[in-house]
Design a protein that fits this description.
CATH topology of the largest domain: Jelly Rolls
Radius of gyration: 25 Å
Number of strands: 17
Largest sheet: 14 strands, mixed
Order of helices and strands: HEEEEEEEEEEEEEEEEEHHHHHHH
Structural class: alpha+beta
Strand content: 25-35%
Helix content: 25-40%
Shape: globular
Amino acid sequence: MSNFLLRPRVCWITLITVLLSLMGCVPVSYTGWTGPQQRRIGTLRLLGDGLVHLNGRQATNGKTVYERDQLSTGAGSGALVEFAGGSIQLDENTDPWFEWKKNEHGQNCLYFHIEFGQVWVVNDRRLVCFDSPHSGGGIYSIVNIRVDRLATAITVFEGQVRVTRPASQLLRAREDVAVERNRIGPVRVLADRELQEVSRWRDNYPLDYRRRDDYGGEERPSGRDRRDRSAQRCDTYARTAIAQNEQNDRRGCGFHGARWSSDYNHHYQWCLAVPEQAARSETQEREIALGTQCREPDSTGDARRCDTYARTAIAQNEQNDRKGCGFHGARWSSDYNHHYQWCLAVPEQAARSETQEREDALRTQCHTIF
């Protein structure tokens, strides 16, 4: 029989297969976005002893998560997606998918879309946005988000969250709100005990990335043992951070911001919220800054140049505030000493470039964040 005569039969078989797939008779699993511009989101860490699925298939520790990938945690399982500048931790029975896109102000944002479940978001260097059936918004902080059939509950532990749907609402540290489809509920300020209760689910997942098999067949240490170990580790971290900041103040280095806080509880709670390696890196970053970026001016010329740089930086930040641009971070500080000491620690060309970066941002990128 010729190929010509076989073609109608092949076409009919193809058509029937497609129809059966649409009717659900032939199983078709979600395999994630396969387009040519797939971008990296972060690295997956498995928590707990249950199964975690990535695009419908059992996930493995250390797997790269890409744009349009979907994660699903089952009973007794959790996961952590680490990205540059932060992480998103998933509770059991949670189902987000991820993408990069611009928000309504034209800013690049790491979006996670969640239909059901609970996540803990830690980020300090990039804008993270969330989308649920009831709400959406931008996060630059530490926040817990819980989504069920009726509402999305948002609890801010540190920093701020701008809710943009169904209406605009700015939430600050310690504030909690439940958002329904057409209404934002009353904002509550939580006490320490209430905040601990919101985040208690995280005690079920030790952030050491080890599952039962990694303990040589032995049972994982109990929740109490893990909490005691974390408490001891984070007490050491917080005391070291305060000692480093005392050195910063004593030497007049001028470093400031959350990293250089003298608040023990701030450092302790942050340490509990992030992987152990992140806390180690933060301690090391402070040590490097004290060793390489804190110095007195070498000459009167340095002092004069950096005085001009600091005053210009403050003036640019005043323009940022006045125009409501929403730029934030160390570059947009209003602290004269911060800018002055930074200028002393870097080559002259770097300071010029920083001034120009602020000028360009004010001229071409001034859109409101919050």
